[in-house]
Amino acid sequence: MTDQHLSKPDIRQANDCPPLPIGASMLDRMVYWLGLGLGSGLPRRAPGTWGTVGGLIVGVPLMSLGFVPFLILTILSCLVGVWICGRTSELMQVHDDPHIVWDEWAGMWITLLPLSYILSYVFPTSENTLSIMILPMFWGWLPTAFILFRVFDILKPPPIGWADKKVAGGLGVMLDDIIAGVMAAVIWLIIYIIVMMFMSF
Prior knowledge:
Layout: H1 26-35, H2 47-63, H3 67-92, H4 102-122, H5 129-132, H6 136-155, H7 160-166, H8 169-200
Helix pairs in contact: 1-3, 2-4, 3-4, 3-8, 4-6, 4-8, 6-8, 7-8
């Protein structure tokens, strides 16, 4: 990868998605589309936001499996994502191209973990998790998780900004979004606890 490809494109501008190299193997084609979030990262403008929407759309039905399966899938998405994002960057010949959104998927899923836990364990019910997910409470807290993750991912307060600038390769692509997801999840949980305490009065 040459020096001109080491910097991340300006996400404030519309950017074309780097094409898959001609003659790429079937495995590379699969990795490339996973890196693009199954196409959710293709828009020329705000691909990170659209990719996060894609991650949210996929994450909601995964949450219906219950907290433990969703936690395992989230951890796997982070671990495998290091390779997916690293290989997709190599195929694009651009480090952390904004159209690579697998990291947004993983970060969004991390943000959803507290909600997944609450749905599975905090509200004892004979209904399954899928039934609970139609409640207004569930759909009211989803946008909060989405907004919090996007705020942290865009503003990149420390240590997110450090990870984004200082860590290279697939780990560098993933790490800032993992940290953003953790921070967003913590803030989400604090807001949830405050709201629930207020409503109990």
